[in-house]
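Why do we bother with a discrete structure alphabet at all? Because it lets us treat a fold like text: something you can write down, compare, and reason about line by line. To make this less abstract, here is a complete entry for Dihydroorotase. Read it the way you would read a sentence in a foreign language you are learning: slowly, and without expecting to understand everything at once.
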Amino acid sequence: MTRLVIRGARLLGAESADLLVEDAVITEVGSVSVPTGAEVLDADGLVALPGLVDLHVHLREPGREDAETIATGSAAAAAGGFTAVFAMANTSPVTDTAEAAERVLDLGRACGLTEVVPVGAVTKGLEGAELAELGLMARSRAKVRVFSDDGHCIHDARIMRRALEYIKPFGGVISQHAQDPSLAGREACCHEGEVSGRLGLPGWPGIAEESIVARDVMLARHTGSRVHVAHVSTAGTVEVIRWAKAQGIDVTAEVTPHHLALTTDLLLGYDPVYKVNPPLRPSEDVEALRAALADGTIDAVATDHAPHARHDKEHAFVDAAFGMLGLETALSVVSDVMVRSGLLDWADVARVMSSAPARIGGLAHQGRELAVGSPAHITLVDPDREVTVDAAASRSRSRNNPWHGRTLRGAVLATVHQGRVTHDVRNGAGTRRELTNATTSGADL
Ligand SMILES: [Zn+2]
């Protein structure tokens, strides 16, 4: 039996307690006497949260291992405090079969640094025309429950309706990248507004997102099925979701750390690191997103971690790839923007970054209370630690990090996944201790 004692952590930021972990399960909470042979992790003054869960990451494997692999993405996830991440289907080949989903699952398990949960494509090849093997993916060893064509909007209402009907019997959910292609054309590369006008860049308007979300909540009502809105970016979308929830419609939503913190004004320097889909919006939208996360209209924070190789990102703004890194900085951004301002406390952070995303994604063993009998997925946070982000120090294989050089308050110091310490920087950046094994040791960590 392996034993780990976490000493003196403040559970959800409240009272201090020790946690005894035996074979990946929490077996004692309170004042624990250390059994002989147990590993001891001193967490005096640190906040203990249930392991973080991310509903939205791009790990790029298979197909773009030059940008990220499941090994490097898993290392970045562990460093960010995540014990489960949902890997989007827009790889090459696309995750649109049971075999493809099982392969992602197995690669994640071989790394063992975080739980990698495959998201299944809704349509074959993400082409929006024909439903993928939703049932076969759900019945596979990967037990896929979240389906998404992320990167593409399911714009055909008939396909969206059929997908919602199909996934209802097995409790699936469709995560929609809401962006009407007839309102946001291929050339659009930033928010349509004052800044896009000044820069002479083709923009896309908030209504391209809001109109799809409005349609989808009505389809969810019509089918009695479940829809999840990926990366909400506008105040108008928040209004639609608030209305839908008030009607009892089964809709959930996520927001990214970058949409909670960064505004479209950053584009004035034409730096493609700020090019992302959906785009950074004006401060009025950012304020609405923060309020919606605080009042529960938006259920979860999800990173949309989107690594890109240099040769895809370092272009003129209009030609650069969309997306930003997010796994390693998510908790620090949420702490800095939402906890310091008093909009969320640590129990709320546990809800929006762990229990709610675990529930939405159908992971019964993640996002659990830090109590006897729960699986040992634990994240330890120093709420007062100031970190200056250094893109070069990232575990990700890519460097498209919009937080580089910024100082954020609040940091993940250690992560425990299935009872094993997968990340530990408690003694400062110079004494990193990270789990490596045969699968990850060859990777570019
Ligand atoms: Zn997306």
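What the structure line is telling us, in plain words: Residues 429-445 have pLDDT under 50 and may be disordered. DSSP finds twelve helices and 18 strands in the chain.
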